[in-house]
């Protein structure tokens, strides 16, 4: 204990009581210890536990509230999740204090409890087989761009939960650096401790922020050099993963912020044993923070994309519910100046160990699977992540035999000019629309119905249409009218095999597209809907030799070159054709493969790529041209970028 830190010291009174009661095996009230990045103090919160059913039920009645939000809560968005009964648990704060971190470290238990009987719920061979199935049967069949599949490492400890998380919290405060939040939470039957690198969402004074993080550069035992970091930043898989999660979180930002989201970065986020790459997304909102949280459940970095289908894939391939893994720890703080009266800060629940009253320890981890994932590599990735958590709380050694900290990054590596140049170069090929504020067009008094075909890219598409002056609204595919009165109907992208007529969503979309064609009224079809239009126009649909998920391609769209992002596994083909056999639509196709890029005709146009994606630097201009073409049918005159 530091000099001057006594039981009577008002600065540490609350923390001292918790530590003393836990050490003497006396009843300990529900508590949370929170340390936020760059803060020199630790927040100590003690209060009452209340379990509620819905996010809207979180009791924001003037007190601070800390909520453990389980993964199953995303059923509030209509998504699939195994119901494992994990409660939406709220700590309604009655007492609090702020303690300097050095005093807190001196007061917390010095010896971390051991974790024994280490095991894993899904064996390595079985997990590798799951990885293969997801790549072949899900990504390979167009169900999505990437998916995160979890497994759990388990163990046991003889320590009481309160004492264990207090001691493990000290280890994190002493040895882990760069975490967005470091925390310990103790409630009846459920305790947790972790150092999460990633904010999911915050809403402070009406400013919403999200931090998409991807790519994991693990500092090798004995140290990592600037050359190692440069090699990591040049890795194609790492770059693609980050851009895909940026796209996914921009979908969420477009759903909660009327002005969409603006992208800053990329940045390096350096931690004790690893380094990530990240962007910062910001926008403004007037929504209640509970609604902001509901609309953004949960981070694509721990689920996949598109979000809805990712949840279905997770339920299909993970044998048990996720508990709190990939959920959030949401802090609601009274803020009179905020539009809603409360601010929200909610990091993702990853890099976390859970402990129940029986002494069972669980460390859930996941691997992000993309089209070129290696099953053995993903197995190794989960082992490394679990070892990172267990090492961080002191369950395994942190240093090698020479005493060098495992995972040290060479001094100055992040300032290496090569690393700086590689980061800066990433934005050169991305859409400026999402990073640079742009003046909106004058309102056109044109209504646009955007049909969500199962992918929240439609929120970004609708945002861009509003930017172009259209009055755009989004409806899900199963609620869309067969005959729409809107001046423009935009059929959005979605996952799945467009040839599967037994899929109710595919069948309904085909019906809606056919009905709009029969009306001969303006329409635009994107990605999956473009494929359905092409099929109605008499063209065959085929799987691509390799999925194009999160790829930027340079294509020719009716004589105009454009850089566009693609997320597709299937394509319509028209070898040696310039006009479709049915409907008489003009074809823009890849001359080497016959894969169709776009179609157009009187009052109708379609595009295979995602014009709204951050991967589409020419997307907004191309969207504007296509919309103008269908609203005022005439030969299009394409201008340069």
TrEMBL record:
> What range(s) does the Chorismate-utilising enzyme C-terminal domain occupy?
125-385
Q: Which residues form the signal peptide?
A: none
Top-level taxon of the source organism:
Bacteria
Report the record's Gene Ontology biological process terms.
L-tryptophan biosynthetic process
- For this protein, what is the EC number? 4.1.3.27
Root EC class: lyase
Q: In the record, what terms sit under GO molecular function?
A: anthranilate synthase activity
Q: Which CDD domains match?
A: GATase1_Anthranilate_Synthase (cd01743)
- What reaction is this protein's catalytic activity? chorismate + L-glutamine = anthranilate + pyruvate + L-glutamate + H(+)
Q: Which Pfam families match?
A: Chorismate_bind (PF00425), GATase (PF00117)
What range(s) does the Glutamine amidotransferase domain occupy? Answer: 449-625
Alphabetical keyword list:
Glutamine amidotransferase, Lyase
Please state what the protein is called: anthranilate synthase
């Amino acid at each position: 204990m530091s000099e001057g830190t006594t039981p009577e010291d008002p600065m540490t009174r609350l923390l001292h009581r918790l530590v003393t009661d836990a050490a003497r095996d006396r009843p300990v009230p529900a508590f949370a210890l929170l340390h936020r990045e760059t803060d020199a103090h630790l927040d100590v919160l003690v209060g009452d536990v209340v379990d509620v059913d819905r996010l809207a039920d979180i009791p924001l009645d003037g007190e601070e509230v800390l909520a453990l939000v389980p993964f199953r809560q995303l059923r509030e968005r209509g998504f699939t999740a195994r119901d494992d009964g994990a409660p939406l648990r709220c700590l309604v704060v009655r007492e609090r204090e702020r303690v300097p971190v050095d005093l807190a470290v001196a007061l917390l238990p010095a010896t971390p409890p051991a974790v024994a009987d280490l095991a894993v719920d899904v064996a390595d061979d079985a997990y590798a087989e799951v990885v293969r199935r997801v790549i072949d049967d899900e990504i390979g069949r167009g169900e999505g761009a990437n998916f995160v599949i979890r497994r759990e490492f388990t163990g046991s400890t003889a320590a009481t939960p309160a004492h264990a998380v207090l001691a493990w919290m000290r280890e994190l405060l002493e040895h882990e650096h760069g975490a967005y939040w470091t925390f310990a939470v103790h409630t009846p039957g459920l305790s947790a401790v972790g150092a999460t690198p990633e904010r999911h969402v915050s809403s402070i004074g009406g400013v919403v922020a999200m931090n998409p993080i991807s790519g994991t550069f693990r500092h090798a035992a004995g140290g990592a050099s600037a050359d190692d970091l440069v090699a990591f930043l040049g890795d194609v898989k790492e770059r693609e993963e980050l851009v895909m999660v940026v796209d996914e979180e921009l979908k969420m930002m477009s759903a909660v912020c009327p002005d969409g989201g603006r992208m800053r970065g990329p940045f390096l986020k350096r931690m004790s044993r690893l380094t990530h790459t990240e962007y910062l997304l910001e926008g403004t909102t007037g929504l209640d923070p509970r609604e902001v949280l509901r609309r953004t459940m949960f981070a694509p970095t721990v689920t996949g994309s598109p979000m809805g289908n990712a949840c279905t894939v997770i339920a299909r391939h993970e044998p048990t519910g996720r508990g709190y893994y990939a959920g959030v720890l949401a802090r609601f703080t009274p803020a009179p100046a905020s539009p809603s009266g409360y601010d929200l800060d909610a990091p993702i629940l990853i890099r976390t160990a859970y402990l129940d009253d029986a002494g069972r320890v669980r460390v859930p981890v996941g691997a992000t699977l993309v089209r070129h994932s290696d099953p053995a590599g993903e197995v190794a990735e989960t082992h490394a992540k679990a070892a990172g958590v267990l090492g961080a709380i002191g369950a395994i050694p942190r240093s090698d035999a020479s005493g060098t900290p495992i995972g040290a990054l060479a001094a100055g590596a992040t300032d290496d000019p090569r690393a700086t140049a590689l980061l800066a170069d990433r934005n050169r090929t991305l859409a400026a629309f999402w990073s640079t504020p742009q003046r909106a067009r004058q309102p056109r008094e044109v209504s646009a119905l955007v049909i969500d075909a199962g992918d929240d890219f439609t929120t970004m598409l609708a945002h861009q249409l509003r930017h172009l002056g259209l009055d755009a609204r989004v409806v899900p595919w199963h609620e869309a009218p067969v005959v729409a009165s809107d001046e423009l109907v935009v059929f959005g992208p979605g996952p799945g095999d467009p040839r599967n007529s037994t899929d109710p969503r595919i069948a309904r979309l085909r019906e809606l597209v056919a009905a709009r064609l029969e009306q001969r009224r303006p329409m635009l079809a994107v990605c999956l809907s473009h494929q359905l239009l092409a099929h109605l126009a008499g063209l065959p649909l085929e799987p691509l030799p390799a999925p194009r998920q999160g790829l930027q391609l340079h294509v020719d769209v009716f004589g105009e070159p454009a850089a566009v992002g693609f997320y597709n596994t299937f394509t319509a083909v028209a070898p040696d054709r310039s006009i479709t056999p049915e409907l008489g639509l003009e074809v823009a196709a890849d001359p080497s493969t016959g894969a169709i890029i776009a179609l157009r005709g009187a009052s109708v146009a379609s595009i295979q790529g995602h014009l709204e994606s951050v991967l589409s630097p020419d997307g907004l201009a191309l969207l504007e041209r296509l919309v103008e073409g269908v609203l005022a049918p005439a030969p299009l005159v394409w201008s340069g970028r």
